[in-house]
Specification:
heterodimer, A: 245 residues, alpha/beta, Rossmann fold, six-stranded mixed sheet, three-stranded antiparallel sheet, 8 helices, 9 strands, B: 275 residues, mainly alpha, ABC transporter involved in vitamin B12 uptake, BtuC, 83% helix, 0% strand, globular, binds adenosine-5'-triphosphate, binds magnesium ion
């Protein structure tokens, strides 16, 4: 099967002043990929995706993205939200559609229906009139995911979306992503420290440590114990073995 | 003379009407930009700019040209300058504002002392005086507040998105640099049109108070703006009338009234309202 490349990075290097955070990274993102980007704290994951999103300048290399490929974004540290910020869930989700529109910003019937569908899928319909700061961390994360989804993006980029979620919520969240990936054909790039939970869902692992150290399937990754001193590959293997038996 | 009679008498003078028109115009426009500034943690820009306005007025008075128009040009320019300083020099917003305010105030007071002669007039610019409001001020404030309200309304969603989360706004294709510049210009304009009624030292409170009063009640952003505007208009009307009856400076009276209202809704929320 010939998959189409949606996004292509060549020899990408990103620096903060003289400090190199991302060095010579190259990879392609194909249609319907479900990618996990992993790496220790400070390994450049957020820097990499912010650069892809056009939020940071890069010093070397190229990023090629077709102009009609749209991107949805769920930032890291959603918990840093101002608790007293006066914005209802409604208003926050609406941001996802309205901010890409020109004046006068009106939603079509189709779009309103789409918003309803997304709210339903994420189980946050009952929250729409609440203040976002009054929600729990997991609820906030789902609201922000809804915001990223309402515009029907081709690629969804999520920076540690599950960090505020408990175990069962985490599984629910991954199930939603899987559904989006399989049924709606959304390409997903997921930054996570939780490779154990994500393992069942992804088709590719990118392991970053300033440079791109590994790019392959999850199974292949598990074979490379030397790659990841920070992840307990040992327990990972055991877990996989347990699943297979 | 009873209080009512005294008030009725006040409205038989042109200046009271002029004060009301100017007051309502500035109350609405400052409430329209207030939430964006307060929530971007940039509300002190109004305070800094009012010092600059003071310097601008001193220069204007010195050359005997229309002080407010003169001041507006300078204030808008400095407002954009503070923003750029904040963006490029990695200076924190409050530091950039503090520096600019102090330099402008120093410059203004030196001008005033060197030139001498306009001390009385300057006092009314500092704390607001409804007696000094001219017909031209009325036209200016109404025109400019209509501009402020129209710009905020038409850019509302982009401004809201940027205030909530600048990175998300950028990813959505919003030109946040340009939008911040627009916001800086709007603040500059609002500060200057508020000077007659509020005075340069007190105008910034008109940007902050209505927003935090509204935030005690509102859940949504749009609601915050609407509640802020409505409460600010009421407070300014009562403040202006109080200022006339008590013969207090109008800006000071309005600020005090804002303070009382805020305290009232705060206490109500914390103590009386069932959770
Ligand atoms: N704004 C910045 N200015 C200077 N250095 C930065 C900045 N942001 C990040 N860095 C540095 O760049 C490196 C990569 O940071 P980045 O945020 O991309 O890491 P990360 O992989 O996302 O980490 P985490 O898992 O903690 O989120 C770190 O060493 C960090 O100190
Ligand atoms: Mg990160």
């Amino acid at each position: 099967m010939d998959k189409q490349s949606l996004l292509s990075l060549q020899d990408l290097t990103v620096k903060y002043h003289s400090f190199t955070a991302v060095s010579s990274v190259s990879f392609d993102v194909y249609e319907r990929d479900f990618i996990a980007i992993i790496g220790a704290n400070g390994s450049g994951k957020t820097t990499l995706i912010k650069t892809i999103l056009g939020l940071l300048h890069y010093q070397k290399g190229t990023i090629e993205k077709n102009d009609d490929v749209t991107v949805g974004y769920l930032p890291q540290h959603t918990m840093a939200l101002d608790r007293f910020f006066p914005a209802t869930v409604d208003e926050v989700v609406g941001m996802g559609l309205l901010s890409t529109k020109r004046f006068p910003k009106r939603l079509s019937k189709q779009e309103k229906q789409n918003v309803q569908d997304v709210l339903h899928m994420l189980n946050i319909k009952a929250l729409v009139h609440k203040r976002i700061g009054a929600l729990s961390g997991g609820q906030q994360q789902r609201v922000l995911l809804a915001r990223a989804l309402v515009s029907n993006p081709d690629i969804l980029i999520l920076d540690e979306p599950t960090s505020a979620l408990d175990h069962s919520m985490r599984k629910q969240f991954f199930d939603i992503l899987k559904h989006l990936n399989k049924s709606h054909g959304v390409t997903i790039i997921l930054v996570t420290h939780d490779i154990v939970s994500a393992g069942d869902y992804i088709n590719r692992v990118l392991y970053l440590d300033q440079k791109l150290m590994f790019d392959g399937t999850f199974n292949q990754f598990c074979e490379h114990q030397e790659l990841s001193p920070f992840i307990h590959t040992h327990s990972l293997r055991q877990e996989k073995a347990g699943e297979q038996s | 003379m009873s209080l009512l009679q005294e008030l009725l008498a006040a409205f038989s003078y042109g200046f009271m009407w002029r004060a009301l028109f100017v007051g309502i115009a500035v109350a609405i426009s400052s409430s329209f930009i207030g939430p964006f500034l307060v929530l971007k943690r940039f509300s002190m820009i109004g305070h800094g700019l009012s010092h600059v306005a003071f310097a601008g007025i001193a220069v204007g008075l010195l050359f005997n040209t229309a002080p407010l128009i003169f001041s507006m040009i300078i204030v808008v320019a400095v407002s954009v300058f503070i923003l750029k300083l904040n963006e490029t020099a990695k200076l924190h917003g409050d530091a950039a504002i503090g520096l600019t305010a102090a330099v402008a105030m120093a410059f203004g007071t030196i001008l005033a002392s060197v030139a001498g002669g306009f001390n009385v007039d300057l006092f009314s610019f500092l704390f607001g005086s409804i007696l000094t409001i001219q017909r031209l001020d009325v036209y200016l404030s109404i025109t400019f507040s209509i501009i402020v309200i129209a710009v905020v309304t038409s850019l509302y969603h982009d401004l809201f998105t940027m205030t909530f989360e600048e990175d998300f706004a950028k990813v959505s294709g919003i030109n946040t640099k340009r939008l911040n510049t627009v916001l800086a210009i709007l603040v500059g304009v609002t500060v200057v049109i508020g000077i007659r009624a509020m005075g340069t030292l007190l105008i910034s409170s008109l940007i902050i108070f209505p927003t935090i009063i509204a935030m005690q009640f509102s859940r949504g952003f749009k609601a915050t703006i609407v509640i802020a505007a409505v409460s600010s208009v009421f407070i300014i009307i009562f403040g202006l009338m109080g200022s006339y009856i008590l013969d207090w400076p109008s800006g000071s009276t309005i600020v005090l009234l804002n303070g009382f209202v805020f305290l009232g809704v705060y206490m109500y929320n914390r103590i009386l309202r069932p959770q």
